[in-house]
Amino acid sequence: MSRHDAIKRFHDGGDGLADLIGDSQPVGLPTPDTDEPMVSRSVRLPVETYERIRAAADARGMGVTTLMRQWIEAGLADLDDSATVSLADVRRALAALAQPNAA
Prior knowledge:
Layout: H1 3-12, H2 16-22, H3 47-60, H4 64-79, H5 87-98
């Protein structure tokens, strides 16, 4: 259906528009990763920086926004000395300390 036809059906009223909408396929929306209310903010980033963030998020199997939120939360926690470290990071750090340096 063309844009013109859709606008005409809208202005004509009646059941035509309802039928058109009723025949459409349901849209799958992404499931939020939290139940906590969120505030949306726009951040301008250089393309190269965004691409690096996207690659890091892909490598972790998560969305860019989720990774950025985690990084921001970690940075804020660091400011007030209440930083949370993942168990995997602690294990990697301990394993690196246990291995002698290669000369």
